[in-house]
Structure formats: C-alpha cells, structure tokens
Task: structure prediction
Amino acid sequence: MASASYHISNLLEKMTSSDKDFRFMATNDLMTELQKDSIKLDDDSERKVVRMILKLLEDKNGEVQNLAVKCLGPLVSKVKEYQVETIVDTLCTNMLSDKEQLRDISSIGLKTVIGELPPASSGSALAASVCKKITGRLTSAIAKQEDVSVQLEALDIMADMLCRQGGLLVNFHPSILSCLLPQLTSPRLAVRKRTIMALGHLVMSCGNLVFIDLIEHLLTELGRNDNMSTTRTYIQCTAAISRQAGHRIGEYLEKIIPLVVKFCNVDDDELREYCIQAFESFVRRCPKEVYPHVPTVISICLRYLTYDPNYNFDDEDEDDNAMDAEQNDEDYQGSDDEYSDDDDMSWKVRRAAAKCLDAVVSTRHEMLPEFYRSVSPALVCRFKEREENVKADVFHAYLSLLKQTRPAQSWLADPDAMEQGETPLTMLQSQVPMIVKALHKQLKEKSVKTRQCCFNMLTELVNVLPGALTQHIPVLIPGIIFSLNDKSSSSNLKIDALACLHVIMVTHPAHAFHAHVPALVPPVVACVGDPFYKITSEALLVTQQLVKVIRPLDNQSESSDSFDPSPYINDLFTCTIKRLKAADIDQEVKERAISCMGQIICNLGDRLPNELPGTLLIFLERLKNEITRLTTVKALTLIAGSPLKIDLRPVLPDAVPILASFLRKNQRALKLCTLAALDILLRNYSSAVTPVMVDAVLAELPPLISESDMHVSQMALSFLSTLAVTHPSSLGQLSGGNILQQLITLVRSPLLQGGALAAMLDFYQALVATETPGLGYMDLLRMLTGPVYSQSAALPHKQAYCSIAKCVAALTRACPTEGPAVVGQFIQGNVSGTPYGHPGCLLLLHIAVGNLPEYLPFVLQEISSSKRQYLLLHSLKEIISSASVSGLKPYVELVWSLLLKHCECQEEGTRNVVAECLGKLTLIDPETLLPRLKGYLESGSSYARSSVVTAVKFTISDQPQPIDPLLKNCIGDFLKTLEDPDLNVRRVALVTFNSAAHNKPSLIRELLDSVLPQLYNETKVRKELIREVEMGPFKHTVDDGLDLRKAAFECMYTLLDSCLDRIDIFTFLNHVEDGLKDHYDIKMLTFLMLARLSSLCPSAVLQRLDRLVEPLRATCTTKVKANSVKQEFEKQDELKRSAMRAVVALLTIPEAEKSPLMSEFQSQISSNQELAAIFDSIQRDSSSANMESMDTS
Result:
C-alpha cells in the first residue's frame, strides 16, 4: 500500500518538471497505475492526483494535455464522489474559457467523464449527482449565444449525456427543453443540427408533458411557416423525433402528415428531401398510425423518384455517351458543400424517395400486389439513374421488394391463392423481361458498386422465382463473364459474380447453358486459380455446378448426343486437382475441392481412366484426416451412387475399415453420412465388399440401434436391410448377437414411429426372406410376441403393442404360406380372452393378409358387441388409415353408421378415436361425407358436436388434398361452433382452428375477420367458470375455463407464424397483455409470444413497451410463500426464467432500453442477485444460439 502511494507521489513530483518529456512519461506511468484494479488511494493522494491532472489539462504541450484527458477516464472510477464533482466543476468552468485549446480539451474531458459513469440502469448515486451538476452549467452555456464553438461543444455533451443518462435527469427535462428549443432558429446550421440530435435523445427518456410541449411547439411553428430555412429545420427535427421515439409520436401523425405533404409541393429541393425523409421515419416507426397515409406517401415518392429537372433521358444512345461524360465530371465536382449549384440538389430528393419506398415495401407486407402494379415498374425504370448513390438505393429498394415476396411462398404457392388472379409471384414473373433488359445495360457499367447491386438483384430474383431467367440466359452470361475477366474488378465483385452464377446454374435447366460453356469455362477456371481463397472457394462451387451442366446424368442418352463435354474435362480436372493436392490452403477451399472433385468423378469418371486411381488415393488420404473426413465421406457417397459405375475396387479394402471406425466417433453428422455411404457401397459394389469388411461394420452397429437417436437407428436398419439382400450369408451371426437384442428393445420403445418404424418393417421382411437358419418366420415371431404372452412381463407402453403388431404383420406379409395359420391362432386366442393388446395385433394381421371382406365385418360386429371398444376402435382406425381407398369404398356406409353410434360416448378417449375415424373416412369420399358431417353440427348432443368438429381436424393435412376446396367453403360453418354454449365444443373448435392455421393457413386466412373477435373473446378470464372445491379442510379453486383460454392463446401463437399480415397487431397485443397476468400455463405461452413478436414486429411492441414491462416485472418479483410445496417453487423459477427470456428478447429491440420503465426494471434486475444470474445465463444462451444458427446456415 505504502509503496503505491510513494510511487505516485514520485510521479506527481516529475509532473511538475520543466522538461515536457518528463511530464509526458510521468503522466503515462500514472495512467498505467490508475488502470490497475488493485490501486487504492488515500484522501490526500486523491486530492493531489486530481489537482495535478486538472493542472496538466492546461499544459503548454499538446501531447501532455491529451494524456491528461485520457487519465480522467480511469480516475473517475477510482476516486471519491466529491473529487469527481471537483473535476466536473473545473472542466465546466474551463469550457467557458477564452482559450480555444483549453475549451476543446475540457469538452473532451467532460465527454470522457460522462462515458465512464456507471450506466443509469445500475442505480448509482454518483452518476445522478454528476449529471445534475453538469446540466445546469451546460444549459447556461447553450443559452448564451456569444460564442458558437462553446455552444456546439455544450450541445454535443448534452446529447451525449441525455443518451447515456437521460433517465436520471427527469427533473431537468423541462429546463433542458426550454433551453434547446430557441436553438432551432439559430443562425448557424451546425447549432441547429446538434440541437436536433440532443432533442432526439431527450424524447427517448422524457416524461409525457415535456414530449407534448415539444410536439405542440413544432406543430405551431410548422403551421406558421415563417421562413424556408427554419421550416426545413423543424421538419428535420420531427423526423429525428420519430426516428428516436416513433412509438410516442404516433398519435400526432394526423396533424403532422398533412403539413409535410403540403411542404413537399414547395419548390425547394432540400425541404423536399427532409419531408421525404420524415415520411420514411414515420413509415418505419409508426406502422399503425401511418397506415391511412401510405398511398399518399407512395405517390409522392414515385413522383420524386424520377425528379431530375436538369437531365434529358429522351434518346437511349445519347444516354450512353452522356453517362461517360457524367462520370468524368464527377471527379472535379468537389464535395457537396462547395458544389452549391442549387439546381442540382435534385439527386438528394431522388435518393430520399428511393429510401422511403424501401421503407414502405419492407413494412407493408399486405400491399405486395399493389407494389408490383405501381412501385416495381417505376423502380425498374430508374435502374438507369446517373448518380451512383441514388442508383444503389433504387437497387436496394427493389431487393427489399423481392425479399418481401420470398418468405410468403408457403401460402403464395397455394392452389387456392392462385385462383384469385394475380398473385405477387405471377406479377413478378411477367415483369422479368423488363427487369433483365434494365439490368443488361448496367452489367457492363464501369462502376463496381453498380455491378455488385446487379448481381445481388439477380441472385435474389432467382431465389424468389427459380427458373425465371431461362429465356434470358444468353443476355446475362456475357455480363457476368465481363466482371470475372475485368482487371479492375474488386475481389468482392468477383465473389458476388460467382455466387450469382452459381445460384442461376442451380435453379435453371442444364441445356440452357450449353451454348455458353465455351465462354464460361476459361474465366471460372482462372478464378479457381485465384490467389485469394474466398474467390477460389466460390469458384469451386461454380465448377461443381458446371460439371453437372456439361454432363447431366439424369437423361444419359439424349444429352450425350446434344452436347459433348470432352473439350472441357481436362481444364476442369486440372484446376480442381491442383487445389485438391495442396495441403496448405484454407479449410473451406479444401472441403470444396473435395466436393468438386467428387462431382467430377461422379459425372465424368468414365472419361478420366488414367487420372482416376491417383485421385481416389488422394481421397483415401483425406478420409484419414479428421478435418476433411466428413466432406470426403459425402464425396465418396456421391461417387458410389454414380450411374457411370466408377471402379472403386482399388480403394475399398482400405476405405471400408476406416468408414467402420467412423461409426464409433462422437460426431452425429459423420455417423449418418457414413451409414449412407456404406449402404450405397453395399448396393453398387456388393461383389467387392468382402465378408471381413462386413463383419467390421456389423461389430460397430449395436450401439447405434437405440431409441436415443431414431434417425441413426433408421439408417443402421436400412443398411441391415441392404445387407440382407446383398450378403445374406453374413446375417447368420445375428441370431446370437447383440444386434437382435437391440432390435427387440427398439421395437418395444414407445418412441418408434415414422421413418424408423418403416425401416424396421423393411428389415424384418428382408431378414425373413433370407431364410437364415435360426431366423425363420416362427423364430422371429416368438421373439417379437414373447413378452405379450408371458403374463409376468407387462410391456412398458401401449405403443409397444402397436409396433410389435406391425412387425408381425410385416413378417406375415412376407410369408404368405405360413400366414393364415397364425391368424387362425390369433382369432382363437382373442375369443378366449387373452390379455389386452391382442385385438390390435390381430387386426393388423388381417390387413396384412389383405382380406378386408373376410375380416372387416368380423371387426365391426366385435365392436358393437364387445367390451373392448376402445382397442377395437383403434384397430378400425389403423384399418382405415392403411387400407386402399378402393378396398374400403364398399364398407364406408357400414362403418360410418357404426361410428355415429359411438360419437356420443361419455369417454373422451373413445370419442377422439371415433372422430379420427370419421375424419379419415371423410377423406375417402369428401363430396358426400363432408356435408353429412356439417349436418351433425345441429345435433342436440354436445358430445356429438365436439366429435364432428374434431373429425374436421383430421381432414386437414399439410399436403394438398382433393378435399381442400370443399373444406375451404365450409370450414366457416364448423368454426361457428366457437360460439357454442358448451365449453368443450368451443375448446375443440379452437384446437381444429389451430390445426388449420398451422397446416393449411389458406383455409382460414379469409375468415380471420370474423373468427378473431371470437378467438380473442375466449382469452378472457370468466368469473362464472371458477368454482371452489373443498378437499378436506382446504378450499381449492378450480378454473374450468383454463383449458379453453390455453387453446385460444395457442391459436394466437400459431397465427403469428402463418397469418401475421392479416392481424391487427395492436388488438393482438392487448390480449397478450392480459395473458401476461393470467394463470401459470398461459403466462408461459404469452412470454413465448412476446419473444416472437419482438423479432417479428419490433416497432409495434415498442409502442406498447411500458404496458408489457409491468406484468413481466410483477412475475419476476413475486415471492412464493415459504411453506409451499416444492412444485410451487419450481413453477415460480420456470416462470421467472421464461419471463427473463421475454425481457432479453424485448431488449433486442434497439430502442427498448431507453424506455424509463424498462431501464428501471433493468436496474432492478441487476441489483437482485438471483434475477441478475438468470438474466446473464439467458443472455449467454441467446448469443451462443445466434452463433450456432449462423454456423448452420
């Protein structure tokens, strides 16, 4: 301790030296000392250090001054509060000094101090007192207009402080405002500009009264319109406020917009530019309030997009020459300020119009068809713009339009939507020729920026409309080649050109490019040899695609006549092999060279007889390297699957054992790819794969067949099925081995379904067909059904009976000779009444044997007489799902009438199975059965009504079905049950609605206007549904409406994904807000919704932020009663975590933390240890999740 203060007093002594170098070094050492965390100063040292640093700020030497200012930062956090006040006082006084240099240094010092203060959310007292001290001095400095530079510095510091610590200065806001407003009419434009910045930061944290004062002032001044110059400033100010606090200005737009529209017509280019910029900020920041004015905004923007009074675009040829002349002009025109020929500010107006259109297009999804009618042609016409900055913005606006068209494809490509005439996609399709014509000229421009814009455009266009450019390829390819060959192209331009070429080649048919291959190959090969690795890796992707183009394998005979690949093979092979052999290159280039060579061998291997063996050996080397092994496995899979039957025999003895060893590795992607590779090697090279190789693989399989990873199990099973066909002899060792144990365990797993189950069935059929001793039909049957019959071992899960039954059925199908006898046994067993679960097995066997006529009547009769209805109905459901339509047609009436008897059953489980059967039956003959279902909606029994509505749910699937148009016409009638008096029917109706919204939004999009009010109605808590139940001495409240509300909120969540553009987001938010205060389950759902909404429509959420933060805060600060059960504590923790996730999501909206309530809540979180810990861990999770999603993309 003593040594530190001794060291510092030594330094202070040196700082008084007359030699500037001594002073400099001492200050530098002090800086180092102050930055150490361990340093502690006693009061005396503190005082001395502070005095010294402040003295050095007035040093004669500039470098010493600069260092002294830098010391202020660490010093503020190390000394006591009153010392910081001394520092601030001195700096403020110096700011008003006559010496310019001292003023500059002091203002930098103040900024440093403000930057070092702890953020407002930490609730530190220091920040508050310092800010209050500075504020008074600054307002007086701003108000005095003698010296402009003092004013400018003071405004700058004020803006900085309001931005960082605005919330602490609430009491000063009125005085700050009254000091700032007069500055808007200052004679100096720079002062006005900084005042606007300060006001922008003020409105983020000021109270409502101050905000109203400010807006009223602006409106009055704009209404008076004294002179042009101040009017411009006021418009700029309005735009700035809207940018910083759009959620607050919304309610005044009705008054503001007419004024701005009026000023657009005044002949003053700067004013026009500011007006259009103001529109842009309104469109982005106040989506709801600006809605009625959007058409006006669009028409103004379209008018000024072409506003170029000093230029004549009459003759296209002249235009080209003029372009060159114009480009030479630009160089000596100087910067904007010097070049003040008033007439040519018009480009700024055009740029503002393009940016504003960009904002409109990005935010108003529902107006796409309108945009394609009016905005799209106007933008395309302006691709010829002569100012490069404006051109870039025009391109950007068009890109936004394309991007808006893209995410909606799920419902645009929907058959029903197509009938409504022009969808955005068909309109875009019709404009492609016009776009290409406009781009064609630009692709040969000198400007790199323009060409980059063109490539981005083409890439996006092809992503939205794959195949749209087939007719235009001859026009575009020369333009792309031009950029690849051009010496002046930057590397980024080349990368963009290659990426664009790649996307076009992937999305268009090969024959379209055949004429251009001679021109394409040389520049692409040159790019593969480029020294910059990013260009190389992009060019290898293109080469890979080129290989597919010059020799597409899908239609061998036809393509070999039409196009001869041989002249190009050598070039492509040579450039790729050079990259493949190099060991010292970038990882990405290695991987892409491997993939590219894989493609070359796959498509052209038969033309490279001499090079092949050597290349395969390189692959073997790459297979042994941990970094490249995954890519190599994929390349080998590709080669092994090639129809050219490439000779892989030389490498198989080495490769297969290596592949087998990969099955042990802990890398899932590697396991999956390896299983696929082994599978295809077995299929196509069975003669070359020896039993020894097979054994090596079989040894690795048992751990892979387990319920922990179904996808891996599925691949392993399909490998075994292939093995049963190619090497039946190898299966002999299965009978005693682990693999069968694993298989039987997997069959009994409740998770076995879908692809894995199908693979399991295939394997059993393939296995029984090999007739391996010990694995015959009866042996396998015993293994499968053993546990069903042994009374002691009950199976862990109902689902297992079903899986076993399906396996038995598959075996029986494979052995038609032994089948019937077994079925006979089962029927005997069933009648004599063995344990439950057999009807399932039994009936699946019936289907297996394919004798519907024989067995179906028997089942139906059993259902009407038997006690085991539930299981028999399940079996019936399986029959309906898996039998062929034609086979079932004759029985539809019979089954239907039987099901109707059961649809009023008391037991909900049985009703659900009946409903599923009804739904699946309806799909067989929708024309007659759907109207019948609709008829039952009038039924007196609420059970019957709920069964019918549930049945509709099972007719909706995410694939197009013949029933869709019929459903679309009558789903409204089924959804009318949302008003049904019975709770359960309403709940079922919501579940059906949710299913429709999720799987086929087109069914319900048009009904939303009528359905949403009913949906929102169900989100309210109903007092009359809450009842008290006495459980012994305790009273317990039961809310019968909870399930209903839960279903309603689930529907709301689904609509966010599928129908966001049809929802009034503010009404939606009202109900989300109520949900935040509801029961545990519903809170959890609404927290998820908030997180989703923060990313989907941040501006709307921002407008409601204050109302949303309160309930979140309440959840996080609720305490559980100390004597509660463990579950209560866990629930509360889960709620807190979930609420914190919502808070973290809300904070991703850039302006959220500026809201006073939010920043208060943040300081509450950081001061509470438990909450702070949760908050940090969630923030870490979310940032790492973002990183991962970037990796996978």
Observations:
- Residues 315-342, 408-419, 829-837, 1188-1193 have pLDDT under 50 and may be disordered.
- The chain is about 70% helix and 0% strand.
- Residues 1088-1187 form one domain.
